[in-house]
């Protein structure tokens, strides 16, 4: 009987913790954006997204992207600095490189891509995509070096081929 009572108390406690956490997590709502100027709506939603991101590096990079692409480089940079201070993997560096490429800062993008390539030197997808960004920024020699490495590993991968092809006509990788 005592075990059943203890188990019941533990179950109720656990359920309370789950309900409490669910109730305290940030939520988006129409009141954040409805009828508000676009920038004000975006800032309100990004503030919620920051809370929703938790400790996820990909999510934080996405939130930073929102701030950077709307022109708030200070806030976007703060978030990225926090991400960069943590343990970074190749895919994190690729996301940061894409973000800086999209934001128009090729120097920061290139540095991030090089870190991704160093972290995972055999990743054919990274080579094709980073190469495409190099090609888009006029460094065809580096681009074609990376393309050759990528294709030596995965010459039958459609996304790599598309990223390479697009870079020759101004299309950013996806």
Question: Which tags fit this structure?
Answer:
174 residues, mainly alpha, 0% strand
Report the radius of gyration as a whole number of Å.
Answer: 22 Å
Low-confidence sequence ranges:
5-23
Termini gap: 60 Å
Mean pLDDT: 87
Tally of helical segments:
9
Strand content: under 5%
- How many strands in all? 0
Bin the helical content: over 70%
Name the structural class. Answer: mainly alpha
Largest sheet: none
Helix/strand order, N-terminal first? HHHHHHHHH
Outline type: globular
Structure, explained:
With 174 residues, this protein is mainly α. The chain has helices at residues 2-24, 38-53, 57-69, 73-84, 90-103, 106-119, 124-136, 140-153, 158-167. Helix 7 (124-136) packs parallel to helix 9. It starts with a helix and ends in a 7-residue tail after the last helix. The protein is built from nine helices and no strands.
Write the layout of secondary structure elements.
Layout: H1 2-24, H2 38-53, H3 57-69, H4 73-84, H5 90-103, H6 106-119, H7 124-136, H8 140-153, H9 158-167
Helix pairs in contact: 2-3, 3-4, 3-5, 5-6, 6-7, 7-8, 7-9
How would you summarize this macromolecular structure in one to three sentences?
With 174 residues, the protein is mainly alpha-helical.
